[in-house]
User: What shape does this take?
Amino acid sequence: IWLYHGNPQAPAAADEPKAVFGASSTVFNFSEREGLPKDSGGNAVVPGSGPARLESTGLMGGSAAFTGQAMVLPDVPALRRAPGAAFALSMWLKPDAGLAKASLFRQGGANGLELGIEGSTLRVAAAGVKPVAGGAVRPAVWQHVALVVGAGKIVAYLDGKEVAAAETALPEIAGEVRIGDGLQGQIDALQLLSSA
Assistant: This one.
């Protein structure tokens, strides 16, 4: 391995969010100590409201602690989905014990897309398709949750395993994005990607 260093004429290197996550990404790492979380992805979406508080003891540094109120992302062009467009959602989740129902992600109302928890299972609801559910969400444990939309299919994953799927081509989805509605617990490393 060769390592070259010490060139004072070399341009400064900085982590460019668009290079790391892509130009059409919204990423919240919740590492801020106060105020609203900042989007470190290429979209630079500013939340209309944030989680109840930002914790310094998340899975990977900071996390967002939810007490029932949603973090709301505004209806901006970067978060709108064209009909049939690919989309991926990823987050680390640590729900509190006794959580009965929560919406982890919701956009578009009745004609939109929602990923939630009902009982102890993940539930996916989308326009034009019967809701599907599966997986065992455990309380007080960090778990990876993902939702992938593309190629006429919606698939929910829990810790890397497919737990629910439905075949459908989604219509256009627009409107504000609500994260953690009804959630008692924490979310870390939230990513909304315009590719699957």
Summary: The longest helix spans residues 17-21. The chain is about 5% helix and 45% strand.
